[in-house]
Each structure stands twice: as C-alpha cells, then as structure tokens.
Amino acid sequence: MIEVVWFKRDLRVEDHAALASAQGPVLPLHVVEPEYWRGEDASPRQWRFTRDALLDLRAALAGIGLPLVVRVGDVVEVLADLHARHGIRALHSHEETGNLWTYARDRAVGRFCRAHGIAWTEHRQFAVFRRLDSRDRWAARAAAHHAAPLIPAPRGLMAVPEVAEGAIPDQPRAWNPEDGLLRPQPAGRAAALSLLDGFLAGRGADYRRGMSSPRTAPRACSRLSPHLAMGSVSMREVMQRLAAARQDLAAMDPRERPIPLGAADSLASRLHWHCHFIQKLESEPELERRAAHPAAEAARRPTAPDDPLLLAWAEGRTGLPFLDACMRSLIATGWLNFRMRAMVQAVASYHLALDWAASGARLARLFTDYEPGIHWPQVQMQSGATGINTPRIYNPVKQGLDQDPEAKFIARWVPEVAHLPSALRHMPWKLDAPPPGYPPPVVDVTAAMRAARDRLTTLRATPGFEAAARGVYRKHGSRARRFRQDDPASERAKAAARAAKAGRQLRLDV
Ligand SMILES: Cc1cc2nc3c(=O)[nH]c(=O)nc-3n(C[C@H](O)[C@H](O)[C@H](O)COP(=O)(O)OP(=O)(O)OC[C@H]3O[C@@H](n4cnc5c(N)ncnc54)[C@H](O)[C@@H]3O)c2cc1C
Questions:
Q1: Which residues bind FAD (predicted)?
Q2: Which terminal Cβ of the chain has fewer Cβ within 10 Å, N or C?
C-alpha cells in the first residue's frame, strides 16, 4: 500500500504539511486536468506559470529523493488507476479554495476515497477556515495560523518503485497558446524568494506611494501574487520572513533602513487581506456566479461573451486611452496593480453596464496570478454587488490625469495617440478629427457615471436592502473596520468612512 501526496496549487516542498505527513512508500502526484483548463477563467499564461512551477517542484522533489509523477486526465480516474496498481492507503493534499469546477472535482475525489476506504487528509495552507461559523474571531485564528512553525522539507521518504514519472505536457489541452503575453513572470521558489528579498532590500522603499500608478507599481509592489496563487512559497513563510525583516528594520537607525517600516507594515496588511478575501469564497463558493447581495443579483443582466462592448473593453480599444493602456499592459504582462484592477472592473460594470461575471472571467484569464478567492469577491466589490462596501465609480480620465499626469504610460501602450500633446493623449476626443486608427470613446464618461449612480441609487433604495446588507456583513465583513470600506487600501477606507459619516452613499470619482 502507498500514500499519495496530491499537489494542486501548492507547488513546493518547504512548509508543505501534506508532504510532511506522508509515510511509507510515497507517490507525489500532480494531475493536469484538461477539463479545468477548458474553463472560461483559465488561460495559456496561467498554464505557462504553472508548468514552470511544476518543473521547479520536480527538481525540488528530486533533491529529497522523490519523483514528481505527472498524469493528464480526470483526477478520479488517475487515482482509480493508481489504486488498482498499488493500493492507496492514504491521500494527502492541501485544502483548496478554487473555482466551482475544482469544488465539484474535490467532492468527486471525496466520494471516491470514501467508496474505496482511502483516508484523505486535507491540510490547511492559508488562514482560511472550512465551515467557519462566524467571522468574529477570524483575525486571531489567522494570526495563530501564520505564527505556527514552518515545516521543513521531509528527508528520507521512500519513493514508490517503478512508477513512470510522466512528462509535463507543453499544453494542458489543444488551444492557441498565444494570448498576447510578452513578458511572463518567472516561476518557482527561488524567483519568489528573490522578489521578497529584493523588496525588503530596497525595491519596496516607495511601495506606499508607488503602488497606485501603473507606471511605478510594477517595480514598487512585491509581485508575489502568482507565487502565492501557485504556492511556490507558503504564505506563512512569506509572513514570517517579513516579520523578521521588520524586527531588523525597527532596530536600525531610521536613516539606514533600506525600506521604511511603513512599507513593511503595508505589505503585511495586504498579505492579511489575501486570506481575508479567500475566506469569503470558502464560506460561499457561489460568489463566483451569484452576487453577494440579493438585490444586486436580481438586478443583473447577462452579457454575452461576444458582446462588442465587452470585447472593446477586454482588448483595450474603448477609445478611453488610460483604460485602454491599462488593459493592453495587462495583456502584455499578465499583471496590473490593485488600483487599476479596481478601475478597469468598475468601468466594465458601471460605465459600460456589463455583467460582472462576464468581465470578471475575461480579467481572470488575463491575470497570471488568478486566485478565485480574491478575484471574485474583488470583482463583486468593485461592481457594487456586495452591498457592504461604499461603491466607488472610478473616472478613467481622472485616474489617468492623477496616475499618469504626463501621459507617458498612455503613450507607451496606446501608440495611436503617442504623437499628441499629453493633455490630448488623455482626451483625444477633444480633437476635431480622431487620431488615425484609434476609435472614438464607446461612452460619454460623465453621462455613463451619472447613469451608473442612478442605477445604484435605485438598487440601494430596494425595500430590505439594508437588512440584507447586514446579513452579507455578518457572513463576510471585516471585523477590523465595522461596516466600513471592506478594502485594504486604508486611505480609501478612511475616505469612505468620512463619506459615510457625511451621509453620502456613493463615491463618485469626479
Ligand atoms: C477586480 C480585482 C481582481 C483581483 N484579482 C486578483 C487575483 O486574481 N489574484 C490576486 O492575487 N489578487 C487579485 N487582486 C488583488 C490585487 O490587485 C493583487 O493581489 C495585487 O495587485 C498583486 O500584486 P502584488 O503581489 O505585487 O501585490 P502587493 O501589493 O505586493 O501585495 C502582496 C500580496 O498581498 C495580497 N493582496 C494585495 N492586495 C490585495 C487585495 N486588494 N485583496 C486581497 N489580497 C491582496 C496578494 O496576495 C499580493 O500578492 C484583484 C483585485 C481586484 C480589484
């Protein structure tokens, strides 16, 4: 009899509770699931990162004397085959808060294990708790999870003899692998740790100021997101390295610090939000398809995947240069900073009145770091679908003027307007004739914002809105900011609180 360690989105050997708890002949397994990769939120750029992380995992496992066995197909069928050949005594994995497809697949694996007497142990890898009955003590439990000792890579485990490793396929299914990605992020543990070390050694010095603009954020932010999404390094290890670095920083003369204490603290709070958001999807997996607030759900109008407005938005040809620049840079790099993610999602839902599920799926495919538990609650939050967050209707022109005053980012990504003076690059519709090759704006921004505000006002006047919102808050809201902006950007949270105090319900970005 053997024990199988099933690697999913936890592609590492360090601090890997599932691997460390396996005994006897151990078979480390990853199953490439073509059906998962056919999902509307999966993409070639995500696969590329996953494949590179799998190669890294294979090398790390070889270092402790184990093969990484890779199979392509349905997990239950793969397990049934291994069980018939070797007899599986136990299956070890990490808990996964994935999309609805992986949720259903895990239930099928559970049924298979129960039917065949296989003990399946799922270990916690994030501060995300199954069957959580209340959010009240979540923060303390999360802190305890992150403070637990790191688990070293196990040594001396016995491999199952004569099992073919299996190749990691070039592609998980037949598709066009070209999805516009020009600058992929390197995968693997060494890449993740080098990002963290570089951030702490000085790259993060301008984190708090630099994170907001798409020009400065790619360097100022940690860029850990795809690594955390694929688990090439554990969240606990990142948290503990950061805490140790913060202690060292605190002991230094402030003038000698490579990054200010505030930068380390801001990163720590964002890492905290990672698990806070994933907990929402863990507690309510349907958030991928259903709005958190029932009135927002009732108000939804479906958007077809080939809707021309959706395509113009997703492909960066709306005629709104700053928005288009953000989308085009996302297509080319697989990454966008938080504020611009929030803006592009808000424009899709508010200005263009597209259904958040359709735009959210397009964004998911563009993000190398797609993490369903962060993504869907954030998509809903930026679309006014939660009922517990002060809605913010971003103005893509004002954001451009604020974050890219000289329109250099626009010039880089929207060459059609690069020859114009900077003020006109933001608003080429002010020219008598539109620049060649660039479309006129798909909406009048001011009129679209007013219409969106009116829709939101109507929604929030629905009978029972507040009572239902309190229910959403009880289930998902952060206890740290009682019913305020349930959002990590503290300056926004404070502004939202001020707006709420002043009796205003919405934030218009004018
Ligand atoms: C509509 C929308 C969709 C998003 N989808 C994803 C997604 O699929 N995957 C993803 O990892 N992040 C997502 N985010 C959150 C955030 O934008 C990214 O985590 C961040 O930009 C990643 O870059 P970084 O690692 O350099 O972040 P840093 O600023 O360096 O933060 C470090 C880590 O903290 C966590 N974090 C940071 N901001 C947030 C946040 N607002 N909410 C929750 N966790 C956060 C992430 O794990 C991140 O890697 C989304 C945000 C929005 C508005």
A1: 207
A2: C
